[in-house]
Amino acid sequence: MGIGIDDHYHFTGDESAIRMFFFRLAVRYFGDREFPYGEQLKQQADEGIDRLVASFTAEPFIRDSKRIALRFYYALAAIRVREGHFVDPHNLDDIFVPTHDMAPTTQALLAEMVADSLQYDTINAEQAAVEARETLYYLYILNVVGSTDWEHIISPKMQQRIQAIMTIVADYHQRYFGVGMTPASATQIRRELLAPVLMFELHAIDVGHRRYFDMEEAYRMYPVLVEMAINVSRDIAPLRDLTPEESERLMFGYLFTAFAAYLDQADIFAPIKIDIDITYRPALEVILKRMLAGMAEFNIVFTNRFEDNVDLVISDAMLAEVDSRNRFDWQQLPTIKQIDQLRSRLSVIKRQKFEARFKELNPEND
C-alpha cells in the first residue's frame, strides 16, 4: 500500500495515503456505533454536512454511509485546523479547473467550506481556500457529489483521461458483443469511473479503496464481463504509466461492477427461454417468475408453452421429451438446494449461448 514502518516504529510513506488508511479504519471500526471525538464535534460535523449537502443538492437527506464518512472527515479536518496543522496540498490543478472558472454553485460550496475553516484563528484565508479544494476532492472520491453535474469542474487533463478510458471500453464492447454501447450505458459507466480515476490520479497505489472480489462467483455470474474488465484495466495502464498488473489491481473492481450494473443485458447475453407450467398450484408460477426475475445475471424470457426453442422447463408434470438436465419437477416452493441447482444450470446455459455467439465476434477469428 506504499506504507511502511521504519526501525524507530514510525510510519513511512505518502502522508495522504497514511491518513486515508487510518481514516478508513476509523470509519469501518466505529461506524455509527461510537464517535470518538466528542458529542460537540459530532454535532458540529453534522451541521456542517447539512449545510454542505444543501449547497449542491435538493435532496432532503444524505445516505447514512456517506454521512458517517463525511462526519469523520469533517472532524479530523477540524482537529487539524484547530491545532494549526495543514497537510501538504496536492497539485489539484491537475484535477480541477481554477476555482474562479467553476460554476457559481461550486464556488458557493467552496466559500461555505472556507467560512467553516475561518472560525478558527489558526488558519488564514489562503490556507482555508487550499483546504476547501482538498475537501472538494475528497467529496468526489467518496462519491458524495458524484451524481451532480461534474463536467464543468474537472480539468481538461482528467476529462481527456476519462474519455480515453471510455473509448477503450466502447471498443471492447463492440468487439465482444458486436454492437455499440447504448448512450445510457455509456453515461452511467462514465459517471461511475469518475471517483476511481480522480482517486488514483493522486494515489496510484492500493490504500484500502479496492475491495477484493470472489472471482469464482464473478466468473459464474458474468464470465465475459470479468474478461472484459481485466482487458480494459490492462489496456488503460499506459494512461497512468502503470504496469498492466498494477492497473488491473486498481481498476478491475470498479470496471467489473460498472459493466455488470449498467451494460444492457440484452446486448450481452442471448435470452434464456423458460417454460413454467404448473397445473395444480397456478399461483406458484407467479412466485417462481418473481424469483427468477430477481436473478439479475440472466436474461430470462418466460413462456407457458413448450416449444423447440425452450431452454429450460419448470413443471409439476413429467415431460419426458425434455432433457433431464433442463427439466425441474417442482410441485411446491423449491428448497435452497433446488434453487442453487437451477442457478447452476442457468449459468451453464448462459455460458453455452455466449460461447456460441462469441466465436463469431472474437476478433482473433477475423
What does this structure look like?
This protein has 366 residues and is α/β, with parallel strands linked by helices. The chain has helices at residues 15-30, 39-56, 64-82, 104-117, 125-141, 156-177, 183-192, 194-202, 215-221, 223-235, 244-262, 265-268, 282-293, 336-361, and strands at residues 3-5, 11-13, 272-277, 300-303, 312-315, 327-329. Strands 4-3-5-6 form a four-stranded parallel β-sheet. Strands 1-2 form a two-stranded antiparallel sheet. A hairpin with a 5-residue loop joins strand 1 (3-5) and strand 2. Helix 2 (39-56) packs across helix 3 (64-82) and helix 7 crosses helix 11 (244-262). The two termini are 42 Å apart. The model has no long low-confidence stretch (mean pLDDT 82).
Describe the structure in brief:
The protein is of the alpha/beta class and 366 residues long. The protein is 56% helix and 6% strand. The protein contains 14 helices and 6 strands.
Features:
elongated; single chain; two-stranded antiparallel sheet; 56% helix; four-stranded parallel beta sheet; alpha/beta; 366 residues
